[in-house]
Amino acid sequence: MLESHVIIHLFFAVIQFLTGVLANGIIVLVTGLDLIKQRKMMPLDLLLCCLAISRIGFQMVIFYVILAVLSLMELSPVAETFTLFLFVSESGLWLATWLSVFYCTKITTVIHPFFFWLKLRIPKLVPLLICGSLLYTSFTSVFHKKCSWTLFKKVWLGLFSPNVTIQMKELSTVHFAFLVTEFLLPLLIFLISALLLIFSLGRHTQQMINTVPGTRHPNTSVYFSVLLSTLSFLVLYLSQYMMAALIFSQISKVRQFIFLVSMLVFGSYPSGHSIILILGNPKLKQSAKKFFLHSKCCQ
Any idea what the Cα angle at residue 35 is, between residues 34 and 41, rounded to 5°? Predict the structure, then answer.
């Protein structure tokens, strides 16, 4: 008989997993059908498709780890398990960062030669950015295999042996510094692009509201919707780093409850942002409506 806290965590984990797989599956399905019909894929669709695929894998890894923590499944005690977790999480962060850069270059107006050059070249750069990110994360995941295995053992020991004092001497300072830098670099790029986009959208929205007092410009709601989506994305994106900082700062005394809550927050980011992307994209939103209507008709 499962305990009440296990049932509660399992319930939220299943809901989160199904929501994430469904939302990202819709993105993959819609962009994949466009590829079959048109024999090509637009840069934005390609970026969304790769991001959705990486997030489906990320949701699977998160769900697998949660089941193992709840003692409902045996977790293979090998270095590849944590290395895989690093790969799917870091690759998803990079792809989400490039998505923010793509939106920023297309919407934001900044008078600077480099920004103007990037605005013209970003569609052609998308495939290179995707391939480069995947190759980079693959290399760094293998490079940090020993480092990640050390972290994995220490976190796992802290979960199931709370009275054991864990020392961090086994972890190389160089490896740890590289690991922190690799996760801070996409955060820095994302923050720059997201803040530029938010300030630009906020300025455009305010200008439209003040253009004709007492009337509502037709594009005001569009800009306001994109602004809310970007702010939501920013909150979800930063929540991942906050949970990661919490785990690493408490690595010697991490407990199951903290770890499970952190995993749920980790999982809420890719599923929550994918839902925001669907609601903010007319094509994806229409396809999602058709999917749910078809599901109701079948029932």
Answer: 95
**Phi, psi at residue 109, to the nearest 5°?**
-110, 105
Of the candidate ranges 1-5, 30-34, 141-145, the one whose mean pLDDT is the lowest = 1-5
- Across the range 81-85, mean pLDDT stands at 74
Q: Which amino acid does the sequence have at 63?
A: F
Cβ 69 vs Cβ 260: under 8 Å = yes
- The mean predicted confidence, pLDDT, of the chain is 76
Model pTM score: 0.82
3-state secondary structure 183-224: HHHHHHHHHHHHHHHHHHHHHHHHHHHHHCCCCCCCCHHHHH
Helix (H) or strand (E) holding 29: helix 4-38
Give the span between the Cα atoms of 170 and 184, in whole angstroms.
23
Coil vs helix vs strand at 228: helix
Distance between CA atoms of residues 274 and 31, nearest Å: 14
Q: Report angle CA 57, 59, 60 to the nearest 5 degrees.
A: 65
How far is the C-alpha of 184 from the C-alpha of 241, rounded, in Å?
9
More confident residue, 160 or 174: 174
Strand runs labelled E in the chain: none
What phi and psi, each to the nearest 5 degrees, are found at residue 212? -125, 100
